[in-house]
Every structure is written in structure tokens, then in C-alpha cells.
Amino acid sequence: MSTSLKSFLLHVFVLCLLAVLYFVVSEYHSGNLARILVMAVYAMGYNVLFGYTGLLSLGHALFFASGMYGLGLSIEHLGLSAAPALVVGFISAFIVAAVIGFLALRTSGVAFMIVTLMFAQAGYLTILLAGKYTRGDEGFVIQQGDRVIAGIDLSQADNRYFAALLLFGVCFLFIAWLVQTRFGKTLVAIRENPERARMLGYDIQRHKLLAVIISGTLAGAAGAAYALLFGYAGATFSTVQYSIYPLLWVLLGGAGTTIGPLIGTVFMTYLIDISSEYTSAYMLIAGLALILLTLFAPHGFAGLIRKKLFSWLP
Amino acid sequence: MEFGPYLFIASLEGAITAAVLALTAVGLSIVFGIMRVVNVAHGEFFMLGAVIAWWITSLVGGHPAYGFVAALIIAPILVGILAIVCDHLVLRRINYDPERTIVATIGLLYVIQQTTLMTFGPEARPVEAPFNKRIALPWFEHTEQGFALTWPWGLSTTTYKLAVIGAAVFILILLWVLMTRTKFGLIMRATQLDSEMAQAHGIPVNRVYAMVFGLGAGLAALGAVLIVPIQQAHYLMGGDPLLLSFIVVIIGGLGSVVGTIVAALFIGMSDGIISVFFSPTLAKIIATLAVAFVLVFRPQGLFGKPER
């Protein structure tokens, strides 16, 4: 079997497994899984930039929140229906990503991390400052009547799960395809050795900017989908913590692998879910995971699998 | 109150912010300058300083000044030792790689913060100031009889607040003496200039790094002990000092101690003044955007030589 066929079968298998899981697990877990699928889209978006292009952003919550508030505010204040509001969410994330990418990519390394962190922090504070419209930390609920696309009520558990799975599936296959293209391979080349990629004649600034835009738009799509499926938009989603989460998920699952973000999101969400039953200090787990991963397993789960078992893992 | 006295009181509050900020930010700055790493857990060392100060003052009986003096000495030392342990267990093992250090110190941030939540609890707890006499401040007013000294209602400060400013200045002078007039300072500066060359001349670079990391954390803790009688100890109090220190260190030029102090004065004062007259949130938005744009448009100027 050729590698690309194996990889295609793997992706289809994962999607079928996720579809079957809905009918097997309890209602509590399927609700959790719907949330995880949306967050995995966020992680996959992050992975395009961090895992494949090698740019570590500490401000992705800004893109997530752009999608979330693009959708939420246009429903709440412009009276749009769900489908056009979703498009507004995507477009606002796209625009924010393009602007931030254009500015932040003038820097590199540690400066890039701080600049993205600062822009995201400014975004969070702006959401608080505009509390009249966004209701700040408290956030606002999107009414059930506004969460209907083409007659399908997305607040119903089954519709919600399969809507999340559809979004996840599209993004999953898109990234699996993207990283096989010339463009995707160039991103990896930039990650491995930017100087050499430039010497070979690639316009690395343009590639990096496109990577930020793709990454940011996917993060925004996850944010918009989250607001639509779970009916809530709040400033918490734009805090630093929500910029750290995708980094953690991707590191844990395996940076630069298509399946890593999903593994990391599932694992971390359940770890935090279980530990929060015992203590309110559940972020302790996240902190320990970050330290241990940097020290002992910088390539995550999927990285280990790729190294020990299947070298073809995409 | 009229505008003049109001501005006066705002700048006084700003000066206190600036004094404590200068200590915290100088800690972050020497760590970056000498070790070339960004310590995201710096705000948590600040928080630990305040929490340990509360703990010590609650253990020591008698006049509040005894407990406070004990806290002023013990808290920075304990925090410094903890930082040295962190350096030894984590940072050294990843070879101070800039990007991995940031991820690891984010992890440290959560570990320290959440451990404090589990042990110290979510409440804000006060520490009594060693002395706290309210003093009314005079104001010059132009009346029909010419200039006169008046004591407008509400224009007052406390002796402790003034002492904080004095203490911060004193500690910064001590630090300057340490950096420029002692052998340890010489070794630190040598390591900052060229760590490989320093190693080749027999300077134990790893031990210097550990000491510097401890010193930086200790300075943050010291700032926190000074501010805690005004602000109360809380497990989330590290966020703002971290953000403000970042801003100060970047605007002042990463690694430059003098630049950091000047920037701390500027940011602390303007933060105090903007917060009083406008909204504190707006003040922070302006400051964070300023940092982002400084880094975007003058990266080399503020980071020293361009990377790679």
C-alpha cells in the first residue's frame, strides 16, 4: 500500500470511528466529545502554524475570539440568522489573522511570541472595555431560536454532535491534503531551515503569512462553531489561558502530525475533566504537563508513535 | 477636589506603582539580559513573595513591624531558593533554549499558581503595615491674598506609602552597587557579554545562571512584600505585575537595567494617572499595544543585536 493511501484510509477510519462513537458512549461523553471536536479544530489550526511552520504563537485566543464574537455579535446586535453570522465569524477571523500576521511576522523567535501575546491581551481588554456590547467576562447567551441552519436545530444533542463532526472532518481532511501539497512541504522546509528555504528561492514571508491566515481562520472557525453549537460567547475565551490550551494540546498530541491535535485535545480535556472533580486547581495538571512535555517528550504522542511504530504517520 | 490636587494624588499613587514595578521589572530584565530567557513565571514569584509575607506575619506575634521585617528578609530568600530549584530541575535541562523555556515557564506559572490555590486558598488576605500614619498633604492655592498653603480634604497619603518609594530606591541602589562594584557583579556582566568566553575563563556559567534566576525572582518577591500591606495577598495577583514588567522591560530595552528603571517610572506614573482619570482597562490596552508596536517596528533597537 502506498503511503498516501494508508494516510487517506487512516483519516477516513478516524472519522468513521468518531461517527460510531456517538451511538456507543453515554450522553455525557458524547456532549464532551462534541466540545472536543470543536476544540480539536482550534488545535489543528494552531498546528498549521506551530507544528508545520515552526512559529510559536501565544495569541491564538484572539483568532478564536474573533470568530466567536464575529458570529455572536452579528446575531445579537445585527439580527443576522445563523448561517450568514457563521460566515461573518469566519471573515472576521480571516481579517484579524491577516492584520496580525502582517504585523507580527516582521519579528521572529521570542519577539514573535511576545508580540502575539500582547495583541491577544489587547484584544481581550478591548472585549472588556466594550462591555456594553460584549457583556465582558459574564458573556451572553445565544438564544436557541437563533441557532438553526437550514431548519436543523443545532442545540439538539445529535444535530450538534454531527455538525461538530462535519466541521472537524472537513478541517481534518483539508489539513491532511494541505500538508501533502507543495505549499505544505514548503512550510515544513521553512520550519526546518528558514535560511535554506530562502536560498532555494521560496518567498518565506509570504508562506508564513499564508500559514498565519490559514491557522487563524481555522481557529476562528472553531470559535464561531463553539458559540453556535453551545450558545455562549464570553471574554474568558480570549484570555491567555485559551492561547495556552492549543499549544498544550498540540504539544501533547504531537506537533506537525495531522492526528496529534485530536489525540492531545481528547487526552487533555479528559485529564482536566477528571481532575476538576477532585480539586478546583485543575490547571495544575496543565502546568505539569507543559513542563514534563518540554523536558521529556517534545514530539508528543503521535511523535512517539511515528518514531517507534509507523514511520509513515502523516 | 480640584484638578491640581487630584493630579497630585494620582501621581503619588503612580509613584508607588512605579517603585514596586521597577523592582519586579529589573528582576525580569537581569534574567533576560544575562540568561537570554524570558521567564513567564516571574509574576508568580511576585505572588509567592506576597503570600509568604502573609504567612510569616501571621506566624510572628507582637507588633506588626516584627513580622513585616521578618517577611522582608525571609520571603525573597525563600522565593530565590525556589527559583534556583526550578532552574536546576527544568531550565538547565532544556539548555535555556529560548522557545522551550517560555513553554516550560508557562508550565511553572500554572504549577506555582495552582499549588498556591490549593494551599493558601482563593481568598485575598491582608498584611498589616508596620507603621501607617495618615498625613495630610499641603497644596498651594492662589487666593485673593496671594499664594496660600491649604490642606484640601482628601489630599493625604500614609507614611507607609512614602516608605515604599524610599525602600525601592534604596534596594535599586544596592543592586547597582552589586552589579558594578563587586566581583559577583563583574562575573554577571562577563557572562552577559559572552557566556562561552566566560566559561573558557573558568567562570561557572551554570552556577551564575542559577544565582541570577534566584536574584531575579527574589527582587520580584521583595517588590511584592513591599506592596502587600497596600494590596492584600491573592493567588491571582501575579498577572498584572507580569504584564506590566514585560511592558516595562521591552520599552526600556530588554536587558538594560537603567532603561528598565526609566521605563518603570514612565509606565508606572502614566498607568496611575490614566487609571485615575480614564479607565484602567484603557490604560492597559494602550500599554500592551505600545509594546507590540515597539517590538514590530524597532525589534533590533530594543533586543540588542538582531537575532541570527
In terms of DSSP E residues, the strand content of chain A is under 5%
- Shape descriptor of chain B reads globular
CATH topology of chain B, by name, is ABC transporter involved in vitamin B12 uptake, BtuC
Radius of gyration of chain B: 20 Å
Largest interface: A-B, 41 and 42 residues
Brief rundown of the structure:
Chain A has 314 residues and is mainly α.
Report on the architecture of this protein.
- The complex is a heterodimer of chains A (314) and B (308).
- Chain A has 314 residues and is an all-alpha fold.
- Chain A has a domain at 30-240.
- Helix content of chain A is 74%, strand content 3%.
- Chain A has a two-stranded antiparallel ribbon with strand order 1-4. Chain A has a two-stranded antiparallel ribbon with strand order 2-3.
- The longest helix of chain A has 27 residues, at 204-230.
- Chain B has one domain (3-303): Orthogonal Bundle (ABC transporter involved in vitamin B12 uptake, BtuC).
- Chain B is 73% helix and 5% strand.
- Chain B has twelve helices and four strands; from the N terminus they run ααααββββαααααααα.
- In chain B, the strands form two sheets. Chain B has a two-stranded antiparallel ribbon with strand order 1-4.
- The interface between A and B is large, with 41 and 42 residues.
